[in-house]
Amino acid sequence: MRFRPSRLAAALVRLVCRAALRALITGLIFTICLTAALAYLGVPLPDPRELPDWFESVSQLSKLLS
């Protein structure tokens, strides 16, 4: 049985999509669990509305350091 290149490419795309989906789901679960644990321990967490400002300040800092 010979593989046609189109079948091989389709199988590769499916494999990559599965791996990306697994990584995304794992990352979301890890983030939710970590956030819940930190909130339970009383660690002050940033307000989600403040995150864009934080990323902007990190971006400006990286421009200054480069």
Report what the structure shows.
The model has no long low-confidence stretch (mean pLDDT 86). The protein has one domain. Helix content is 79%, strand content 0%. It has 2 helices and no strands. It has helices at 5-41, 51-65. It has 66 residues and is mostly helical.
Keywords:
single chain; 2 helices
The total of helices stands at: 2
Distance between the termini: 55 Å
Mean pLDDT: 86
Low-pLDDT runs of 5+ residues are none
Q: What is the domain total for the residues?
A: 1
Strand content: under 5%
Q: Indicate the percent of residues in helices.
A: over 70%
Number of strands: 0
Write the layout of secondary structure elements.
Blueprint (H helix, E strand, L loop, with lengths): L4 H37 L9 H15 L1
Brief account:
Helix content is 79%, strand content 0%.
